[in-house]
């Protein structure tokens, strides 16, 4: 029987979805605007006899995740922008050791300590491998409390399937606002995938010993392992691209935005429609892999793009790369915790289309 | 015929990369002997740190996890929490534990994490080539302290006595300091390791054995001189023995709290 809809904060819905996905070990450090997530985990992980630790730092939290993931657990940490910067070393190690885990960034505005209001200026850090070395990991961007819960739940499966960290890149607005949500199914821990590569449990099968490590001092061997990982990235690019489209067929101009910016853009699209102006919306859900093929197709159809972001322009670079000079790509953004209004985006649409 | 002495099962029968006179090989062997005696080879996990002993996973014949420099106690925390019935060994050098990873060791110890830290103190950075460690003695020379460690004038600070530092924390149940400079100390160190592992398997709390270990290569000495230097210089400052023992009474502890 389907569950009934509940009214929940995004941060709490993410936490509950993680528990339902079979997360047995959560490690976090307090930071605004994601504190409800850690507090929810503090109560409910213990109620479920699972592991919760308020770590001494974000650095420690991600390395606890590293250990728990290496020992085969479904594990998660959450933070907000400055804290996620601190986690980057650990994320690089997780990628280098092919460890599945879920990292939630309820992003705020930067740089530095910045502010605690919502931001989208962590796009580069999230999608380019924010730590050292050649690597990528999945990045999923929810637009609503419902989607935050659904993507978090699925992130654990994707992490196990592809043996890599999966990042949920929400922003402070998605984390803080309350909406109706139907929570995803509760996964039996016994039904979760077995991890033959993990440390521990050797006595059960008497298998050869396992080493979880990212080190290899032989250049030719390290190169081969990185190339092998990039082949996996190619398969992910073929299979895991996600996006949503609204009215792109009729539109001359397509708004491109993710998360909160996509919701604002949708409002502007509807306002434009009332004025008889047809615009579309293209919403990347997977930020890595970015839906570059579909953007290229739309560019080839002669569409113009307007990227709308809560940053000085980061995702717009992926739109430009995908359009590859075949379409005009424009940008409108606010930063510092300011959120673009539907009116501002509509004004930009009208200016570009001279309507 | 009864076998009185042999190569431990938990240690692979291969030559190590460690330098002549280095203590890591002896320490590895002690760990492996105790694991064999406790019969837990197939439920042991070691976290091997950044430093010379990053090679530990080549030598130990049981599972290993290799974390980032200094983050070893955090990773060991994650492992032990999800595998509480395993023997988790957090192997750390002095740079890993007492410099870059001070936050991690203090908080893991304070939470009473139920793994055992083997802290190898050789008063120098080994793998990177003889830089000053947090445990480098006053006056001891290092590539980054070419005139010797000078606490005040050059602002290099003082060598850190880690057992004593951690002893104030409620989560620590057993803190002992051994040495591998001679046979008697090797035997005593093995007893400390066994006591710590047994306490871990009983789930008592944080346990650590600090082991003074020679690094003749980076001390600029012959192996035999290294043993002598350790005895004459390190042991007077880093006193050997059980620094803290609050293990459950009657649980095999030889001495009480000191």
Provide an overview of this structure:
The complex is a heterodimer of chains A (355) and B (258). Chain A has 355 residues and is of the alpha/beta class. Chain A folds into two domains: 6-194 and 228-238, 3-Layer(aba) Sandwich (Rossmann fold); 244-353, Rossmann fold (3-Layer(aba) Sandwich), CATH 3.40.50. Chain A is 43% helix and 21% strand. In chain A, strands 2, 3, 4, 5, 6, 7, 8 and 14 form an eight-stranded mixed β-sheet that branches. In chain A, helix 11 crosses helix 12 (315-323). Mean pLDDT of chain B is 95; it is low at 253-258. Chain B has one domain: Thiamin diphosphate (ThDP)-binding fold, Pyr/PP domains (Rossmann fold, 3-Layer(aba) Sandwich). In chain B, helix 2 (56-59) links the parallel strand 1 and strand 2 (63-65). Chain B contains nine helices and seven strands. In chain B, helix 1 crosses helix 7 and helix 4 crosses helix 5. Chain B has helices at 24-38, 56-59, 72-82, 94-100, 102-110, 162-166, 183-201, 216-219, 223-237; strands at residues 44-47, 63-65, 87-93, 116-121, 172-179, 206-212, 241-245. With 258 residues, chain B is an alpha/beta fold. At the A-B interface, helix 3, helix 4 and strand 10 of A face strand 2, helix 3 and helix 5 of B. Strand 10 (211-212) of chain A pairs parallel with strand 2 of chain B.
């Amino acid at each position: 029987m389907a569950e009934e809809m509940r009214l929940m904060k995004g941060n709490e819905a993410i936490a509950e979805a993680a528990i339902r996905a079979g997360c047995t070990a959560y490690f976090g450090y307090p930071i605004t605007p994601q504190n409800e997530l850690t507090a929810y985990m503090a109560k409910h992980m213990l109620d479920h006899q699972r592991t919760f630790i308020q770590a001494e730092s974000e650095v420690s939290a991600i390395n606890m995740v590293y250990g728990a993931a290496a020992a085969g657990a479904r594990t998660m940490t959450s933070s907000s922008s400055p804290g996620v910067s601190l986690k980057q070393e650990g994320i690089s190690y997780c990628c280098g050791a092919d460890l599945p885990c879920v990292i939630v960034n309820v992003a705020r505005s930067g740089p530095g300590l910045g502010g605690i209001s919502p931001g989208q200026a962590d796009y580069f850090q999230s999608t380019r491998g924010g730590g050292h070395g050649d690597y990528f990991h999945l990045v999923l961007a929810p637009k609503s409390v419902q989607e935050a819960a659904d993507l978090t739940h699925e992130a654990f499966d994707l992490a196990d399937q592809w043996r890599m960290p999966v990042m949920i890149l929400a922003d402070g607005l998605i984390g803080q606002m309350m909406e109706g949500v139907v929570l995803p199914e509760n996964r039996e821990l016994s039904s979760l995938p077995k991890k033959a590569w993990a440390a521990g449990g050797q006595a059960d099968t008497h298998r050869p010993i396992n080493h979880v490590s990212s080190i290899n001092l032989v250049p030719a061997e390290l190169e081969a392992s990185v190339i092998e990982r990039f082949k996996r990235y190619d398969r992910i690019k073929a299979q895991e691209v996600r996006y949503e489209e609204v009215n792109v067929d009729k539109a001359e101009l397509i708004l491109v935005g993710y998360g909160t910016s996509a919701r604002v853009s949708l409002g502007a699209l509807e306002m434009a429609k009332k004025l008889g102006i047809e615009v579309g919306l293209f919403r990347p859900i997977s930020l890595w892999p970015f839906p570059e093929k579909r953007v290229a197709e739309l560019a080839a159809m002669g569409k113009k793009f307007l990227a709308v972001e809560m940053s000085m322009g980061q995702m717009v670079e992926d739109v430009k790369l995908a359009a590859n000079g075949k379409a005009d790509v424009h940008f409108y953004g606010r930063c510092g915790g300011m959120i673009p209004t539907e009116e501002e985006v509509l004004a930009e649409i009208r200016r570009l289309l001279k309507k | 015929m009864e076998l009185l002495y042999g190569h431990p099962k938990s240690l692979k029968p291969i030559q190590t990369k460690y330098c002549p006179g280095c203590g890591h090989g002896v320490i590895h062997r002690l760990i492996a002997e105790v694991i064999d005696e406790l019969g837990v080879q197939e439920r042991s996990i070691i976290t091997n740190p950044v430093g010379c002993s990053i090679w530990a996973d080549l030598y130990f014949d049981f599972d290993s996890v290799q974390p980032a420099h200094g983050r070893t106690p955090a990773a060991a925390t994650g492992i032990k929490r999800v595998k509480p019935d395993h023997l988790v060994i957090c192997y750390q050098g002095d740079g890993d534990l007492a410099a870059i990873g001070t936050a991690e060791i203090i908080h893991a110890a304070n939470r009473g994490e139920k793994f055992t830290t083997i802290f190898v103190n050789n008063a120098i950075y080994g793998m990177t080539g003889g830089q000053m460690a947090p445990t480098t003695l006053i006056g001891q020379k290092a590539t980054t302290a070419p005139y010797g460690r000078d606490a005040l004038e050059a602002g290099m600070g003082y060598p850190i006595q880690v057992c004593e530092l951690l002893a104030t924390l409620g989560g620590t149940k057993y803190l002992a300091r051994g040495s591998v400079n001679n046979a008697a100390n090797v035997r005593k160190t093995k007893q400390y390791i066994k006591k710590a592992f047994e306490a871990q398997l009983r789930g008592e709390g944080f346990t650590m054995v600090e082991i003074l270990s020679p690094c003749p290569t980076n001390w600029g000495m012959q192996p035999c001189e290294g043993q002598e230097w350790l005895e004459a210089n390190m042991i007077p400052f880093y006193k050997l023995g059980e620094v803290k023992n609050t293990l459950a009474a009657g649980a095999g502890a030889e001495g009480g709290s000191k």
